[in-house]
Write a structure and sequence with these properties.
By secondary structure, the chain is mostly helical. It has one domain. Helix content is about 70%, strand content about 0%. The chain contains two helices and no strands. The protein has helices at about 1-15, 30-55. It is rod-shaped.
Length: about 55
């Protein structure tokens, strides 16, 4: 879910950066959501790898 959030937020941020009307400012901090979603996905992946290596 965190990776899905990161991908959707990255896509929305890219769309926002390429908008035709530069004065149409949105409310969502897409760049921050993409960062934290990717960070969360990375942490969860590392925890899963650590758990798998321990033989859990």
């Amino acid at each position: 879910m965190a990776l899905l959030l990161a991908v959707v937020a990255w896509w929305a941020d890219r769309r926002r950066m390429r908008r035709s009307d530069p004065d149409a400012v949105g409310l969502m901090p897409w760049r921050d959501l993409a960062f934290w979603g990717l960070f969360g996905a990375l942490l969860l992946t590392l925890v899963a790898i650590r758990y798998a290596l321990r033989g859990g």
